[in-house]
Design a protein that fits this description.
Helices cover about 20% and strands about 55% of the residues. The chain contains one helix and six strands. A six-stranded antiparallel beta barrel has the order 1-2-3-4-5-6. The radius of gyration is 15 Å and the shape is elongated. The protein starts with 8 loop residues before the first helix and ends in a 7-residue tail after the last strand. Residues about 1-5 have low confidence and may be disordered.
């Protein structure tokens, strides 16, 4: 007996895509929109990556995606933790499981070490 129900792959993909699009719209409405280029390595359903945004900032993060829609959490060079959602394209690097991609999306700062705590 399993306590966690399993969803058919198509239903799970639709649910995750809908959630990601909602997150993208929510983040875009209250924050900034930018572009970026990144390299990531998949580990199970997640990817660990390093990216450069349109403002020249470097971010390391963890994310997941369904098709061209992705969501993730990153840490930039200033120590800010950001929540991100976006759409993009990627291609494999040689015969490895690594990918190179480009995309656009929205982000918002979840934690800023330079801001006083409330």
């Amino acid at each position: 007996m399993t306590l966690i129900p399993t969803l058919p792959a198509r239903t799970a993909a639709l649910l995750l895509t809908t959630t990601a699009v909602a997150a993208l719209l929510g983040l875009t409405g209250c924050s900034s929109v930018g572009g970026g280029v990144g390299v990531s390595v998949p580990i199970g359903p997640f990817s660990i990556g390093l990216g450069v945004g349109s403002d020249g900032g470097v971010t390391a993060g963890v994310g997941t995606s369904v098709g061209p829609v992705g969501v993730g959490v990153g840490v930039n060079g200033s120590g800010q933790v950001t929540g991100n959602a976006g759409v993009g394209v990627s291609a494999p690097v040689g015969n490895s499981r690594a990918r190179v991609g480009a995309g656009v999306g929205g982000s918002t700062v979840i934690y800023d070490p330079n801001q006083p705590q409330r």
